[in-house]
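User: I'll paste a sequence; please echo it back and then give the predicted structure.

Assistant: Echoing your sequence first, then the prediction.
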Amino acid sequence: MELQSVLEKARAYIDGLTVDSKENVPREVVADEHKFFTWDNEYRTPSVKPYLFDWSYYNGVVMEGLYDIYAVDPEKGKHYYDYVKEYLDAMLVKGEDGSVSLNPRLAGYVDHHGADCYKTAAVVMKMTDGHDDYMKLASTLYRDLTDTTHVNSKGNIVPLDFMEENLGYNYWHSWAGGKPPMFKVWLDGIYMLQPFLASYAAKTGDTAQLELIKKRFQWVAETMLAENGMYVHACNSKDDACAFHWTRAMGWYAMAMVDVMDVAGGELVDVIKPNLKLFVDGMLPYQDKSGMWANVADWPVTETNRLETSGTSMMVYTILKGVRKGWLDASYRDAAVKAFTAMTELKLKDDGLEDIYMKAAANNTNNYENTEYYMPDEGKGSGPYIMAYSEMIQL
């Protein structure tokens, strides 16, 4: 398939899933507790909106991908911007005092659940002009994570209770119930928190927070990197880790690297750039001959360890953005183009984008081969696929 045909097929899928969809209308989905975006395939009991409600990272990555398409050509892409704005505006509550917050009915436990609840704030930072309602919301979310005097709705001070110096000042991935998970630091959580924190800190000149972000990335690179050049999924220390090399977990971390360098620049680029190259060099030997990566990157491709769409999408986004920004040599581009082409040819079918793995445990149990978890159109894959597409059209 010629590259232009690949891009046209991808665009048709993205538009059908989002801006042209009659099901995925943001204001309608958000307003109805029984309606879900079709990419929201988390198992729920009952089928109303707890879990992460409508404010979730899997919605956040879809919306960020759409914003990134808009940003490539704002005039032609205005309908993508409007779609993202419709979603965000449906989530907001304005107080009589001029304050702006998330509707607690729609985003129930943002300040006391954990890292996953803050991912979408990175989209808010892309949408703000620095003085509007979006910035007011971002300020509230930033306060939750950084203010050592702010007590959250569960009586905790997040940066004192759930951020540890011996973890490189990284936060626990989850702090629901005040108890740590088996492994406190997940690669997923680096992506959920650090691009937002870096964007806000850079915009407001919070140099102390930028210094903490630098230390966090240094700790991850020193502690979570394995001898084979890939990263472990989660850990408490180098010797206490969930050692599976799950492609999507590494993909979250990879996207965090390029996104933080993009919004913060300066010294953070100097710190992260060599680690980005080291990571990509560690992943490329495990790229399948098709162009994709397997769910667990260093395991053979089988019916249970399939070529997986979300992690591959993240690799495409990371490599192409790294090349575009000059952090990776142009010679890396071909691997990413091959991967995106393979995904679109092999996994984009009439019934959606296939083989997105729903979830994998970070507790050293192996649920990485549960075939029931390979799902179509799941937001953790469709969102990064849209983000990867936004980089493809900049080639």
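The two ends are 17 Å apart (CA to CA). Residues 187-204 form the longest helix (18 residues).
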